[in-house]
Design a protein that fits this description.
Elements (H helix, E strand, L loop, with lengths): L1 H12 L31 H5 L17 H30 L2 H13 L2 H34 L7 H22 L1 H9 L4 H24 L6 E2 L4 H13 L7 E4 L10 E4 L6 E5 H6 L2 H16 L2 H35 L10 H15 L1 H22 L2 H14 L8 H6 L6 H10 L23
Helix pairs in contact: 1-8, 1-12, 3-13, 4-5, 5-6, 7-8, 8-12, 9-11, 11-14, 11-15, 12-13, 12-14, 15-17
Length: about 450
């Protein structure tokens, strides 16, 4: 969910940066669209239908991090630092070497008219960024994932996804990039405000289209193969106050061995998506808690909350671009090759400022996301009252995804969009207000209480 909104924000602030890396899955649940998914190994639904034994209701210990998981996290931290610096270095080089101005001049020859010059410039800069980012993306997304045993993806599938992502980026630039530059021309003093307002429908449309058009380009979505489990999930959704809920299964096993589920879309496209890998590795009770968590996002309107936050962040970012760009152009304009912000060659300057500001404010959206995920955990626990299954689900997620249970403060501030799994397991072990006759925070959303485990 957070990643989908980040994609929308990237398209608004710096369109050509969006295709620099393949789309990562949203941080938490499920997907949608075509039929023809390979049938997964059937989860042990029948066994879980019975009442849990006493051994299945006690506290679940937090698993220690494996040595492999620690290595994976350390190497990921190194790549994060490299990727962050690289994402600032590249637009700075394009800007200060005058390359952006030369690409603009090259685009004017075939483009002639303003919009076509802009579209050609956007396509060329997107292609350039794709090429310079390709070695790092290949190592991070393909080589490293195979080295740690997390990937099933063939090179052909990775390359196809990368090229598809490139095409989406070029089309996105042509559709979006003209908006801020037109507003820069028409209203040099207030362009940042009008662009932020124009970004609202863009973000909404992007979130709405993500499960309908964009995600099916990379994987096949369809109805769940296990109809009995699907009926249990839909019954749980009805009890949570969700009428006509939609649950989809996606064949992510062609790409990864990791497990995941998430809520995506907006309005009529909103849905819960389950990777086929999670259906194979979690039992029915655990899956029902995961679904309860995702239903919490839906019922508690978390997507709308995140949308509102991102609009506010968009406004702040654009104002800071407006406030700082004039000084930079006056000081370095001759070197840049332009003397006005409404010159298309200023794009790397916009991207650089947005990158710096984005890094500085990253803890804000991540903190909001962690809070919403924690409340979705609470909703799932209150809906299912199956603390043991919830805790074992998170323990399995830690093992399957090579995660570590606890993180330091800086790591949480700039990396975690979910609470660390150790904290989530501890919360699942201890949060039982129903056992002490205390009111449920979200009980008013439920049609009937769940049986206590």
């Amino acid at each position: 969910m957070l990643r989908t909104l980040l994609l929308a924000l990237a398209l608004t602030l710096a369109p050509a940066l969006a295709p620099a890396q393949a789309p990562a899955p949203p941080a938490d649940t499920a997907h949608a669209a075509a039929a023809g998914l390979p049938a997964p190994n059937p989860p042990p639904v029948a066994a879980s239908a019975a009442a849990p034994s006493p051994a299945d209701t006690g506290a679940v210990p937090v698993p220690p991090a494996s040595e492999k998981a620690l290595r994976y996290e350390r190497s990921g931290n190194v790549l994060w630092v490299i990727g962050t610096l690289w994402s600032l270095l590249i637009p700075a080089l394009i800007l200060f070497t005058g390359l952006s101005a030369r690409i603009r001049d090259l685009s004017r020859r075939p483009g002639r008219k303003w919009y076509f010059t802009l579209a050609i410039y956007g396509a060329l800069i997107t292609l350039l960024l794709f090429v310079v980012n390709l070695p790092l993306a290949f190592y991070e997304e393909f080589v490293r994932e195979h080295a740690y045993g997390l990937s099933n993806q063939t090179f052909a599938k990775w390359a196809t996804d990368a090229l598809t992502n490139l095409v989406i980026g070029i089309v996105g630039v042509a559709l979006v990039m003209w908006v801020p530059y037109l507003l820069l021309r028409k209203s040099p003093r207030r362009w940042w405000l009008w662009t932020a307002l124009a970004g609202i429908p863009l973000i909404v449309v992007t979130v709405w289209l993500q499960p309908l058009l964009i995600e099916p380009m990379f994987n096949r979505f369809g109805p769940m193969h296990d109809r009995a489990l699907e009926q249990r999930i839909l019954a749980e959704a009805e009890r949570a106050g969700i009428e006509g809920g939609r649950v989809y299964e996606v064949n992510k096993s062609v790409d990864t061995k990791a497990v995941n589920a998430y809520v995506t879309g907006f309005g009529g496209s909103k849905r819960i998506v389950l990777w086929d890998t999670i259906l194979r590795k979690l039992d029915a009770r655990e899956l029902l808690f995961v679904m309860g968590h995702e239903m919490g996002h839906y019922v508690l309107k978390h997507i709308a909350i995140l949308l509102s936050m991102f609009v506010a962040l968009l406004l702040a970012c654009l104002w800071l671009v407006h406030a700082s760009s004039g000084w930079l152009i006056r000081r370095h304009g001759r070197r840049f090759g332009f003397d006005r912000l409404d010159d298309i060659a200023s794009y790397p300057l916009l991207a650089l400022i947005v990158g710096v500001v984005g890094f500085a404010i990253t803890p804000i959206p991540l903190a909001v996301s962690r809070h919403l995920e924690h409340e979705a955990d609470r909703f799932g626990l209150e809906l299912t009252r199956d603390n043991h299954a919830a805790a074992t689900a998170f323990a399995k997620l830690q093992e399957e995804n090579l995660a570590t249970p606890y993180h330091g403060t800086l790591y949480k501030l700039w990396h975690d969009n979910h609470p660390p799994l150790g904290e989530r397991i501890e919360f699942c072990n201890t949060y039982k207000p129903w056992a002490h006759g205390q009111p449920l925070r979200y009980g008013g959303h439920f049609k009937d209480p769940a049986p206590a485990r």
